[in-house]
Write a structure and sequence with these properties.
The complex is a heterodimer of chains A (111) and B (115).
Chain A (H helix, E strand, L loop, with lengths): L8 E5 L4 E6 L9 E6 L6 E6 L4 E2 L4 E4 L5 E6 L8 E7 L14 E6 L1
Parallel strand pairs in A: 1-9
Antiparallel strand pairs in A: 2-7, 3-4, 3-8, 5-6, 6-7, 8-9
Chain B lengths: L4 E3 L2 E4 L5 E6 L6 E8 L3 E9 L2 E5 L6 E5 L5 E5 L8 E8 L10 E2 L3 E5 L1
Parallel strand pairs in B: 2-11
Antiparallel strand pairs in B: 1-3, 3-8, 4-5, 4-9, 5-6, 7-8, 9-10, 9-11
The chains are: A mainly beta (111), B mainly beta (115).
Amino acid sequence: DAKTTQPPSMDCAEGRAANLPCNHSTISGNEYVYWYRQIHSQGPQYIIHGLKNNETNEMASLIITEDRKSSTLILPHATLRDTAVYYCIVRATGTASKLTFGTGTRLQVTL
Amino acid sequence: DSGVTQTPKHLITATGQRVTLRCSPRSGDLSVYWYQQSLDQGLQFLIQYYNGEERAKGNILERFSAQQFPDLHSELNLSSLELGDSALYFCASSLTSGQSSDTQYFGPGTRLTVL
């Protein structure tokens, strides 16, 4: 699996956009970038994934650089409920594809 | 709500005992994955089953075993429990056998405490 690097923590004011970066410089051409988050000790929650193009869903946007070596998860209007640990994961190819979680970024949304 | 269910939510037991954790995948999903999250190790992949057959193994101890039944629910059996087995155990499911584009959805977890 390609290794990912994320800042250990970030702060964001409620109502502002939260931009969470991830470096994955060794990513292979057919590997996807996935984002999950874990609120306290709940089960990891799927947010979004992408291969090359930018993606958007009801939760977030994913911006992947053209060389695919880094990406940014954007929560457009962060709320207190978005306080969580955010994991950027590169999915290995093949027919048995576990998720390898790193230490993630702890996002604290404040008033 | 991801659609993945896990029982029980909490389990407290003693060292040396054996427990069984249960997972029901989302409707239509054929793969089940088990993960362990302890304070010092983070989230770690244990094992995957696809349509009843073992598909991949991670750092799963020999004291641990799993199976997936014909109705696709899965059980994780932990035996000869040690204090260090205290952790959160998560189950995830996905539609296929684990292609790169196949999203895994996680259950709420079982918190195991070994005293």
